[in-house]
Amino acid sequence: MRILTIAAAVLAAGSASAAMAVDGRLSDSQFVKAGHCRGLAAGETAAKLDAILKVQKRGRSDHIIDQAWTARNDAERLARKDASAAQTAWTADCGVFGD
Q1: Neighbours of 94 (CB within 10 A)
Q2: Rounded mean pLDDT of the chain?
Q3: Other CB atoms within 10 Å distance of the CB of residue 16
Q4: Angle 28-40/83-93 helices, nearest 10 degrees?
Q5: N or C, fewer C-beta in 10 Å, the chain?
Q6: How far apart are the C-alpha atoms of 53 and 26, rounded to whole Å?
């Protein structure tokens, strides 16, 4: 059942990479990257990333969760400070999560 929930969350993201969809579970580095991208995202994409992060958080070490939340906070700070740099970071880092 848990695998189906994870797969549904990843599929709901719509444009998750094929590797993420096949595994059903993000690697630690992908989880941190999703946190970073969540900090840059807005609207529907942000909601999709929230759902992915919520499902993928289960079973992670506290250290990795802290890294993801730090990456998110840093990205949110960047987005508030410099929208152009945030858009560039989104394009470079977050294409697998859609627009």
Answers
A1: 21
A2: 80
A3: 20
A4: 150
A5: N
A6: 10
User: Could you identify the residue written with the tokens 């958080």?
Assistant: 57
Q: Rounded to whole angstroms, how far apart are CA atoms 34 and 26?
A: 9
Closest CA to 74 of 95, 93, 56: 93
30-64 pLDDT, tens per residue?
A: 999 999 999 999 889 999 999 999 999 999 999 99
Residue 31: φ, ψ to 5°: -65, -45
Note whether 28 and 64 are within 8 A (CB): yes
What is the rounded distance in angstroms from the CA atom of residue 59 to the CA atom of residue 29?
A: 15
Q: What is the model's pLDDT at position 12?
A: 44
Q: Is the dihedral of CA 79, 52, 10, 27 positive or negative?
A: positive
22 membership: H or E segment, kind and range: helix 18-23
